[in-house]
Every structure is written in C-alpha cells, then in structure tokens.
Specification:
This protein is of the alpha/beta class. It is built from 6 helices and 11 strands. A hairpin with a 2-residue loop joins strand 3 and strand 4.
Length: about 260
C-alpha cells in the first residue's frame, strides 16, 4: 500500500532518479498547460519526478511553466515536494560542494507569472511568507543529510534572478549587501506557488561555483553541469533517504496556506 506521495523537482544536472521502481512517463493536464513527468515507487511511497528544465535541459529558467508544474503536483495529491537547485555562492561559509537547506529568499525576477491569484472572481489572496519553506520538511532533509555524513547547512538566503544570463559582479556585490548567500534562476516563483497550492516544499541548494566577481574564472554552464555530475551519486543517496523519512502528515501549516486553492483554478 502506498503511504505517501512525494515529488522531486530536479534542477540543472538532475534529470532522472535511478532509485525509482516501476517507472513510467505520465502527463497531467492543467489550465496552465500540460506537464510531463515520471512516476514510480520507492519504499511504499509514490514518487513523481519532474525535470524542471526538461530531460535535455531544453527550457531556460525564465520560460519554465512554474504554474503548470505546481498545479500538476497539486492535482496528483502530492504531500511533499523536494526541489534541487544549482546555485552560485556569495558566502565563503557555503562553498561549492556543500548543501544549503535554504530558509529565505529574495525575488529579483521581473517578467514571470508569480501567483495563482490574479484577482479573478473578485478574490485577492495575500499569502504569509514568514517561513517561506516548510520547516518540518527542511528539518527532515537536514537530519537525513547529517545521518548520511553529508555537509549540510541549516539556512541561507537564495536570491532569484531572471536569467538566462549570469549576473554581473556589480549585481553580486549589491545582492551580498542585501543579505543574499546564494544566487540562482529557478526557485521563484516555484516556492511561492507551492505555498499558495498548500504543498509542503523545501529546496536543497547546491553551490557549484562562486558567483561573478568572487570567482577567479568566467562563469559557464559547463562548469555547473560538471559539478552536478560529480555530485549526483551522493545527491541521489540523500534524496532516496529523504523520501523514506517523509510521512503523509508533516504537522505543519503549509496545507492551511492553500485553503483558497481549488486545484485547477
């Protein structure tokens, strides 16, 4: 009997999960578009795996259909979502190769649909983001990583840019003054939409390089992918073990935050 439904959203370099059993391709229709993902089983959990950028990294960050992705996971009655995100680091205490279980974000995106609630039917919803990521799910990931002996950092501020270009040194200098620890292109509006939909959601940020102006070398996509390829086996161990630790009731307030969300709306 399947006990819980868990979704993994893979970022750059994370395009599949080898621990899934009875894996199959599925499609979910939402009013925001059609979503393709994998479904499988692992330790009495139904697992849905979604490659955020497509299987061959064909969708840039600013073109990801975040609303369709999250609406699809809600429709599949997912209990918890673990996302991965390759990032640049601004913080010497969060070096490449570490795992940051982020707890705050700054949204510096410009042109993306950022909410499910556009004032339709006269309903305006203001969602609380005092705790942007599910605290119970964050703790499970942290505890699991420590049990595996992996380098885990509890908390960090992720600043999301529009992309697809990398940031300038001047921007990174400004972001650091704002309090950002990490910079990436995909965590927003994904985290916001997950909360609006009432999903328990947490992100494992994976620094692959130091950001522009801190790194001594020019930034490149190849550098990011090479770092992720090197780290993938250990990341898979962490994700598989996390899945085993997740229960259907995380006893948090995430589901309450989605009380206005009606699935296809």
């Amino acid at each position: 009997m399947v006990e819980v439904n868990v979704a993994i959203i893979g970022g750059s370099g994370v395009y599949q999960q080898n621990f899934l059993e009875n894996e199959q391709d599925i499609e979910v229709e939402t009013r925001f578009g059609k979503v393709s993902l994998k479904q499988g089983l692992y330790c009495n959990r139904r697992i849905f795996f979604m490659a955020r950028h497509g299987g061959g990294h064909t969708v840039p960050a600013h073109r990801v259909n975040y609303r369709a992705n999250i609406a699809a996971l809600n429709k599949l009655q997912v209990d918890a979502v673990i996302a991965t995100a390759a990032v640049g680091t601004l913080n010497q205490d969060m070096p490449p190769g570490s795992r940051i279980i982020i707890d705050q974000f700054i949204d510096f995106t410009r042109h993306r649909p950022v909410t499910f609630y556009e004032g339709e039917d006269g309903m305006v919803v203001h969602t609380d983001f005092s705790e942007p990521y599910c605290p119970r799910l964050r703790k499970k990931i942290l505890d699991t990583g420590k049990k595996l002996g992996q380098s885990m950092v509890d908390g960090g501020c992720y600043l999301c840019t529009e992309g697809p270009r990398f940031e300038t040194p001047a921007e990174i200098k400004m972001f650091k003054k704002w309090g950002a620890d990490l910079v990436g292109m995909t965590n927003l509006p994904e985290a916001v939409l997950a909360r609006e939909a009432g999903l328990c959601y947490a992100t494992i940020a994976l620094p692959t390089n130091y950001a522009a102006g801190i790194s001594e070398e020019p930034l490149s996509y190849e550098e990011v992918i090479n770092a992720m390829d090197k780290d993938k086996p250990e990341l898979d161990k962490l994700l598989a073990e996390c899945v085993k630790e997740i229960s259907a009731d995380l006893t948090c307030s995430c589901k309450k935050a989605g009380k206005h969300f009606s699935g296809e709306s």
